[in-house]
Amino acid sequence: MPPVSTLSTMFPPSPKFTERNLPSLVGKVYIVTGAASGVGFELAKFLYGAGGTVYVAARSAARCEGAIQKILQETKSKTKGQSGRLESLVIDLSDLASVKAGVEDFLRRETRLDVLMHNAAVMTPPKESKDKHGHDLEIGTNCLAPYLMTLLLEPILIQTAKAPGTHANSVRVVFVISCLQEGFVPGGAMSFDATGTPVILTDKFMANYMQSKNGGAWLALHFAEKLGRHGILSVSLHPGLMRTELQRHWGFGLKLAMSITTKSPVYGAYSELYSGFSPEVTPEHNGGYMMAWGRIGELTNDVKDGWKSEAKGGTGAAKKFLEYCDRETKTFL
């Protein structure tokens, strides 16, 4: 596959897979984290409009309910035949206990899960920000919480993939990451200290965020390897450059530049639709990397080298990262 150009990365071609391409989603169930605003909100609105049962996951009941009421207001008379169902799912990704409690709540209410969309993230928070357990906030929110959530939901994902009437390759896990094209990220996928804990990178703007997103790419590869034999696809996704709440910690100048040069969140929802629903995404792409606004991409050499063991010519960094994830989440399983 030829490399995607920098220009094409910054200014992707128009989306070809949109809400108009969705089939009826009646009877199907979806979780979208970070669905109270931005890209996740737009995706939840699309899935509800196509008849799906959508769990609007956010860090508080007020944010979940506010988003649900807004979706209902914005989709009046616009649904495809039978409208879907919207449900609140309170999950604070900065608190692994909240992740466990939220998943347990979901499992009491549902018997299937068709797509798990790890949309939520935190980017460039104030220096030394931590999650509830003392982890770096970006690593904790962007890596540990999605890892634990996927582990806890594995049984229902497998059950759904095997259920009568479930279409092949339709059960998916999507890890929304960032632009991992060569030249956009610092050299080396992730740095570790002597204990195998990711080092917090503070020397360059967004370096720590980007290494957390490299971790997300490894999570997609890990669950592709683990769940692929059950017919479940797991991919990572660069949703595109957009103006969203992710930039809330940026200064006025950077926010202004994003508002002028980038797209609205609905375009990121098109990227997520493609990764979660397009028939172009097949087992051949399991573990792969998707790009805005719905294209097959290519992982960086750093991520691919990290995935390979040292014995096979790689760095073995992904193995160290996954051992860290196991160590930090095991008490919540």
UniProtKB/TrEMBL annotation:
Single GO MF annotation: oxidoreductase activity
Pfam families: adh_short
Chain ranges passing through the membrane: none
Keywords, ordered alphabetically: NADP, Oxidoreductase
Entry-linked InterPro entries: NAD(P)-bd_dom_sf, SDR_fam
Similarity comment text for this entry: Belongs to the short-chain dehydrogenases/reductases (SDR) family.
Name of this chain's protein: Short-chain dehydrogenase
Organism (species): Cadophora malorum
Lineage: Eukaryota, Fungi, Dikarya, Ascomycota, Pezizomycotina
